[in-house]
Amino acid sequence: MPASNRRKAKSLSNGRPPLSQKIPTSLSSKATRTLIRTHHRLEKAQARALHTGDASTAQSLSAEIQERGGLKLYQRASTIGQSASRGGDSSKILVQWLEEFLAQYPAQAPAPATAPNAASSPSAIQSSLNDGTPPPPPLLSLLEVGCLNPENQCARTGLFDHGRGIVRIDLRSTHPLIQQQDFMARPLPSGGDAERFDVLSLSLVLNYVPDPVGRGEMLRRTREFLRVSGDGGIQRGRGRGRGSDGKEGKSTATRKREGVLPCLFLVLPAPCVTNSRYLTEERLEEMMRELGFALVRRKLSAKLVYYLWRFDGVDAVREGGKVFLKKEIHPGRTRNNFCIVLT
Question: Do 320 and 332 form a contact (C-beta atoms < 8 A)?
Fold first, then answer.
């Protein structure tokens, strides 16, 4: 569909509640779960009211959300729920998967005194050439959308460039290392791959978008921020696994990088794909293939489902691709209405 006919992407803030100042100092596990579930229930009800034009109900729900703590309390509960002590840091899965693919990277982040990207600095590369060992791989860049805690596992691994290679954003920043920014309003890269990333993390963010079309637009938009050329990616208009002359012959390290990079890390509540009337894992994978992604890893837990999708570049996207509308797949009174629409 021509870009002019697409609906303008909604801001993520459309799905976020008003802010409140009532923030408790601690929350029990039960209170954390109850708060998050209640918040999502009210937020979905508010989105439905806005969609149907019921301004009175939407205003009433907005006031109730604010009274219950709003975005600040929701962020507080989410941060606690994702803390290491609760076993909820989803970035551990991302790092584990990347380290399985990229075993040549250091296991821990460099000490603070280490210069950014020192593992691939000219002196390090020259040293490796002198002693005959392969040069160290360039460190990876990461865009973490919806970041609540900058001290998660991504901050501890040696995979990423801890100088300027990690960008963390959220609608409301709770830390100096997190930029306050709406992903859907983030300016698109204009300077080539220098402004793009090897890895984009979208953990428990897509399910917060208030409507199915907005979710589809968010998935489509992730492609604009992923590198598609250079070491670790692919050239636009070229196939994966071949050099600039179209011949085989890349190093093992480069082939491993191209087996996973650039990639999107997507985390959803498990019921979004296991108990939805409109979405299954098979349909999600079909959608992602249509956007140029290939599934690399998947993990299903009791509460969450984790995916690692490799982006194969513009060549993997067909012109006039398939449209995915809201279509009931699994009817049932106990199923939820989570849906993603791609137009």
Answer: no
Catalogue the long-range contacts made by 246-252 (C-beta closer than 8 Å, 24 or more residues apart).
251/134
Q: Of 339, 20, 15, nearest to 205 (Cα)? A: 15
| Pairwise CA distance, residues 215 & 299, whole Å | 21
The span from the CA of 337 to the CA of 343, in Å, is: 19
Bond prior to 212 in cis (omega within 30° of 0): no
Token pair for residue 238?
A: 């070229």
- Reading the block at residue 34, the tokens are 């109850």
- What is the H or E stretch that residue 64 is in? helix 55-67
Residue-wise pLDDT tens digits, 232-254: 433 333 334 433 334 444 555 56
Residue with tokens 């179209």, as numbered in its chain:
246
Tell me: the pLDDT tens digits for 39-68?
Answer: 656 766 777 777 788 888 878 877 777 776
Task: Provide the residue count of the chain.
Answer: 343
CA 182 to each of CA 65, 137, 174, 178, 193: distance values in angstroms, whole numbers, following the listed order? 20, 32, 14, 12, 21
* Helices 55-67 and 29-52, packing angle to 10 deg: 160
Residues of the chain whose pLDDT is less than 70? Answer: 1-37, 39-41, 43-44, 68-87, 104-136, 229-258, 314-320
Can you give the pTM of this predicted structure?
Answer: 0.72
